[in-house]
Design goal:
Largest sheet: 3 strands, antiparallel
Order of helices and strands: EEEEEHHH
Structural class: alpha+beta
Radius of gyration: 13 Å
Bound molecules: zinc ion
Strand order of the largest sheet: 4-3-5
Distance between the termini: 35 Å
CATH architecture: 2-Layer Sandwich
CATH class: Alpha Beta
Low-confidence stretches: none
Mean pLDDT: 93
CATH superfamily: YlxR-like
Strand content: 25-35%
């Protein structure tokens, strides 16, 4: 069986394009607010490199990409998730 070509998305930090499966997806869900790797709506992607997910400007970049204010509780979830990649 032929494999489907991967969906490519750009990391908002390093601006490199990756297979979507290798990126963290942050979505502004219409009902549920900012979600990590789930939800429907405007999305931004961050690659799983330490340089990017520990980017000091990440919050600003995310807020700009999602056109939304991101609260601290999201970053608690985010930090728990990225702890898996260290
Ligand atoms: Zn990156």
């Amino acid at each position: 069986m032929r494999q489907k070509s991967p969906v490519m998305r750009k990391c908002i930090s390093c601006r490199t394009t990756f297979d979507r499966n290798n990126l963290l997806k942050i979505t502004k869900d219409h009902k549920l607010g900012i979600m990590l790797n789930q939800g429907m709506g405007r999305s931004a992607y961050i690659c799983k490199s330490k340089k990017c997910y520990t980017d000091s400007k990440l919050k600003k970049k995310l807020q700009k990409a999602l056109k939304s204010i991101i609260y601290h509780d999201f970053f608690d979830i985010f930090e728990r998730e990225i702890a898996n990649y260290k």
